[in-house]
Amino acid sequence: MKAEDGRALPQKETEGYKMPDAVKMHNIDVAEFTEIINSCQGDVYMVTPDGDRLNLKSKLCQLIGFTRLIEGGTLAEAELVCEDPADESKLFRFNLYGKDKKEK
Hints:
Largest sheet: 5 strands, antiparallel
Helix content: 25-40%
Structural class: alpha+beta
């Protein structure tokens, strides 16, 4: 959405905007998770406890986000928001079942 002067409004200021539901991930293997994120069609955001949104399609944001959440080689917990519903389904299945044989 855009303001009257044509500039883009931050999401907090847009009327009628509903933030997509978040997918909560637990005990995720970092290498497999990175592969799944890279295979997603749309942007995937990690939402930090402070409310920051890190775009995980960016390698820099992956480093920052993963560094904050890694415990012993796995992601302890992450809250993700996907722009594409198919990506949300993919991450939900990955969280439940691990890496799908078709994804290898």
